[in-house]
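Re-running Subtilisin-like protease SBT5.3 to confirm reproducibility after the cluster update. Everything else is unchanged from the original entry.
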Amino acid sequence: MRASPSIIRFISILSALLIPTFAEKKSYVVYLGSHSRDSEIEVSAVEYERVRNSHFTLLGSFLGSEEKAQESIFYSYTRHINGFAAVLDEAEVDQISKHPDVISVFLNRPKKLHTTRSWEFMGLEHDGQIQPSWTEARFGEDAIIANLDTGVWPESKSFSDEGFGPIPPRWKGICQNGQDPTFKCNRKLIGARFFNKGYFAAVGGTVSSSIFDSPRDTEGHGSHTLSTAGGNFVPGASLFGLGNGTAKGGSPKARVVAYKVCGPMTFEGSCYDADILAGFDMAISDGVDVISVSLGGRPQPYEEDSIAIGSFHAVKHGIVVVCSAGNAGPDLATVSNVAPWLITVGASTMDRKLATFLNLGNNISLVGASYSDKRLPNNTFFPIVTAASVKATNASDSNATFCMAGCLDPIKAKGKIVVCLRGENGIVEKGINAASAGAVGMVLANDVSDGNEISSDAHVLPAVQIRYTDGAAVFAYINSTVNPTAYISPPSTLLGIKPAPVMAPFSSRGPNTVTPEIFKPDITAPGVDVIAAYSEAQGPTGESFDKRRTPYFVESGTSMSCPHVSGIAGLLKTLHPDWSPAAIRSAIMTSARTRDNAVERITDDGHIKATPFAYGAGHVHPSQAMDPGLIYDLTNQDYLTFLCSLGYNETNILLFTDETFTCPKPISLVNLNYPSIAVPKLNGSITVTRTVKNVGSSPATYTALVVNPPGLSVDVQPKTLAFATIGDQKSFNVTITATKAGANRDYVFGMLTWSDGKHYVRSQIAVKASD
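Result of re-run:
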């Protein structure tokens, strides 16, 4: 996501002016588990005060008085999550962490914020016609979808309540408009809240204004993600005429709620743990059905990760939590949000491409990307030059090459298309600098380190970003002739692109670095060039001078793929209200597709086959998820057993729940009833156990079909499962054996499919032989 220079400068100045007096003091979260009355939905004022006072007493025993504790604590989590956020020094943290009632103490860290075509690509529409499965799920009617993000732009048509009936009585939340009296909720956008104490505890000071003390979205990210999950049908949505169509969310008749847990965007991250945890605690209490979380950070132990903690408590209450996988790909072991109780979503393309063409004077045409609404005269060619060749007198070749501010000579650049190299400064900033020097257009060429990954931006002049290989062709052409020329076409919408989906290079990959026995990511969904609602508080570049406003905008990232799955979870909640969060995840995973629209295995760049560490179970297929046949279910007890296997003792486990629980023995992480199988250390042979529940038809008999990972054999016993009724459960064993000496020491992949001839229940298998 972009962070404008003006916002970054503002944050830097604010931080410098408001640095705490004692540098060793930092903000921390003290996590105490669950409350003893965790099953209650509403918290009385008396109970609220009792819990707060208990936090003051606990912290006061370390700080010397309850008065000092009250000054230190800026959040008390009083509803379902038990704990508090406070400003402490390292010595105090060390002492508090040793208290028997404390599960963990962790730094209040920042986390980063990680359409008109996507739903047709996923099969819920065909040629603009609604498909029966979407109608059967009643478009997610009255499911309550919450979004932890940058807030919401309530005036967007995506959140209009026209045609909506009364708010569901189970909703317990409010519309907290804070310092912004213009912010209004309605029967569609039924609630909104904001949490910023953790943000200011980290960056310093407080600011009272409608920008900060309001759930209004001034960044665009929150409106985009929330409308993707549950936005209305809005005909005629586009960005500067691109991708024109009917915008809608996965559950367009759902009710939506915005929890603003992020401050102004910076490259370091703007969504702090203390605020995220407060958002989760409130969402659980308010009575939501789905929580969508398009943000994350570096993987941490679960007891030190606000998203893992918050989602654990949400899932305990039957709430589905969907999270983005992160944008740190294509490197392996980069996936974030890896807890087994949440759904982790990677990003891939759809069969629509928003393209801009660079036509060279030698009749070569190169396809690139841009959202610029600026146009060159039709088919008029202009001189094309490298940025280094039009550098200012005092500028270095390097700075000029990257089109740094003040490094281009206005006399030399005027009237020309300038080729800038990607890197060093912002992509949009390069175009601003080129335009300031009088350039009529810009070509943004990838460096060798950028490869073939290109992105679109709303440039301030005609512009196109091109791949590294195409950039090399442009430089070669410029150097081959005395008068090189080029023309940048207006952006256009191309449909029916093959192959699709293709994994986005930025999408974070597995394996899971916290518990490699849990296969992550779980699923992939459209996350490239997604059109959805946007904030009208700023222009599409995020720059103060950009006076353009657009109610819908195009964004890319796992932030965009996550709410697609959140919207599908809303459909499944409406269609199957008795299904657990684990059952919904299982249905989404086991029904996924691993082949693209060219009927080939999903690829990473169009020709290199991707692995399940990129796409998880595959690309989401919502119609099939509504009738998966079998599901792999999990209960709260299963997750507590999982915690036991990580080394939590029964005393600590008791803090997570008000139920008596005894850790079973022996414990094997690979036997958690997950819809996929991951074995990170195979030594000869291993047997894994799974249990499936029949939710399809009855009677039914399923047969196991196996694709062996290279160098391994997979034996399933029994090979058939007979179900007499709906709800029947059957267990089976999967024995994985190395078939030859010196088996591959890298991960290898296979698949287990249970089929009754109608349903195909697929589970990915990932195995790494140990030394």
